[in-house]
């Protein structure tokens, strides 16, 4: 599973990355988590508001910090 956290390094972006890693540990799902901070790459996903969350190439969240339950659901949908 490929997970990308899109954001330029703001506190909300760091929070999303932290929550994603916590959820992955809790549900024991292996995944490659990457932080994408390059504006050009973020825009390629069509994300105009960060933080963004991309799972297996699909934009799942943009412009907000999802809670752990939301993240878990999104990851399980892509398993």
UniProtKB/TrEMBL annotation:
Write down the superkingdom of origin: Bacteria
Concerning SUPFAM superfamilies, the annotation shows:
Thioredoxin-like
Q: Record's Gene3D superfamilies?
A: Glutaredoxin
Q: Which Pfam families match?
A: Thioredoxin_3 (PF13192)
Q: Which residues form the Thioredoxin-like fold domain?
A: 1-76
Active site (UniProt): 10, 13
**Listed disulfide bonds for this chain?**
10-13
Q: Print the keywords alphabetically.
A: Disulfide bond, Redox-active center
Show the InterPro entries listed in the entry.
Answer: Thioredoxin-like_fold (IPR012336), Thioredoxin-like_sf (IPR036249), THIRX-like_proc (IPR005243)
Instruction: Identify this protein by name.
Output: Redox-active disulfide protein 2
């Amino acid at each position: 599973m490929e997970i990308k956290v899109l954001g330029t390094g703001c506190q909300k972006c760091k929070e999303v990355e932290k929550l994603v890693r916590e959820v992955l540990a809790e549900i024991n799902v292996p995944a490659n988590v990457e932080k994408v901070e390059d504006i050009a790459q973020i825009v390629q996903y069509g994300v105009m508001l960060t933080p963004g969350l991309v799972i297996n190439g699909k934009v799942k969240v943009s412009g907000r910090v999802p809670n752990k339950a939301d993240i878990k659901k999104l990851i399980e949908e892509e398993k």
